[in-house]
Amino acid sequence: MTEVATTATKATAATRWVAGLFSAALVLVVLQGLWAGMFIEQDSDLWVFVHGRGAEASILTAGIATVLAFATLRRHRSLWVVGAVFTVVLVLIAYLGGLISDDGLDSLIPVHVPLAMGSLLLGTWLAVKSWRLVRE
Ligand code: HEM
Question: In order of start, what are the domains of the chain with their CATH numbers?
């Protein structure tokens, strides 16, 4: 009985971590829009730098959440599959961002920004789904 209770507590703690990390990744992606607004308005390299570091932080957070979901919530397949898609899409967006900034490929901005909008949908779905699991 105690063992069952301990397992249930562990599962809840892991689910809370997954939900918290996916939510943090979502907030970081929303902030990417804010940093972009700052460098567009002020034409400042500082905000491009912040935008670059924000990309790394969001990828790391989404990746850790996905690995944790895979390790602890394996039967909730949609969570870690969509988490993996979210992480890969963020890597792709960041790669395109690097091409825009470093190689001057501005023609990729109309791909970079809509992909960022799509990642917001994925992040929102992951945050809602994982907090629902916490409450189950
Ligand atoms: C609405 C959201 C976003 C907008 C409007 C936006 C816009 C842009 C623009 C215009 C650039 C080129 C900056 C320049 O060199 O002048 C850029 C670069 C970049 N973007 Fe975004 N972006 C958005 C979201 C994201 C997201 C979600 C990620 C990844 C998680 C990302 C990752 C990057 C990276 C890594 C760069 C290169 C920065 C550097 O060179 O350090 N962006 N973005």
Answer: 2-135 (1.20.120)
